[in-house]
Amino acid sequence: DTEVTQTPKHLVMGMTNKKSLKCEQHMGHRAMYWYKQKAKKPPELMFVYSYEKLSINESVPSRFSPECPNSSLLNLHLHALQPEDSALYLCASSQDIQLTVKNIQYFGAGTRLSVL
Amino acid sequence: EDKVVQSPLSLVVHEGDTVTLNCSYEVTNFRSLLWYKQEKKAPTFLFMLTSSGIEKKSGRLSSILDKKELSSILNITATQTGDSAIYLCAVGGSSNTGKLIFGQGTTLQVKP
Question: How many angstroms separate the CA of residue B17 from the nearest CA in chain A?
């Protein structure tokens, strides 16, 4: 089973709203990732968590706030977003952050976010 | 600056054709190159190539890594309409941060 589950599938929010995206995996992976993907563009890395600690923040604006409450769960809290933040938000997980043959990043189906 | 470039950006073929997708990279201390297929949403993993595994094959799909030319190709033989998707190439470099650098993707459309 290589399933990464993301909820909700779709989200529409206003610029003053606060919402959260959720990502869950039960593969025992200790690295989890948030990516942002705009239409017709490749995924762009936002955050990496390794053993529940934030290891990479790719200079993401503070209106995006990640949280890793336990090894299976990753959240992305959203507040005061802008219309240009509308995108597909993908979560991924891997055994750990080492780039080895057995360490594949598996992606969830994503949350399609629209900011009005 | 690390960079991954895919070509062509888009491709239209007919069922039964063979296609070759290209990925070239300039990445500090290359560790691995991955191919993903993205249909509607989630990129799904196809292959990982490393210094110790430069050729992979699964059914009609195969991939080769050329470390001298800093490139990889993804071949799809006897294409089917279900192969229509965006094919993403991603490369992992030295920092062991788990960070993958993605190319722009190749959009493949297979017509009946």
Answer: 24
Cβ-contact A81, A63 below 8 angstroms: yes
Residues of B in contact with A33 (CB under 8 A): 98
Contacts of B59 (CB under 8 A, 6+ apart): none
For the purposes of burial, counting CB atoms within 10 Å of the CB of A30, is it exposed (0-12), middle (13-18) or buried (19 or more)? middle
Beta strands at A64-70 and B100-102: parallel, antiparallel or unpaired: unpaired
pLDDT of residue B17: 97
Please tell me the predicted confidence (pLDDT) of residue B22: 98
State how far the alpha carbon of B98 is from the alpha carbons of A1, A78, B82, in Å.
Answer: 21, 24, 30
Residues of chain A found within 8 Å of residue B53, distances taken between Cβ atoms: 101
Q: In which element (H, E) is residue A83 found?
A: none
Q: How far is CA B84 from the centre of its chain?
A: 14
Token pair of A15, please?
A: 């610029």
Mean pLDDT of the region A35-41:
92
As given in the structure block, the two tokens for residue A103 are 């360490």
- Kindly report, residue by residue over B71-88, the tens digit of the pLDDT: 999 999 999 999 999 999
Closest CA of chain B from A34, distance in Å:
11
**A38 close to B (CB below 8 A):** no
Nearest to A55 by CA among A26, A24, A31, A29: A31
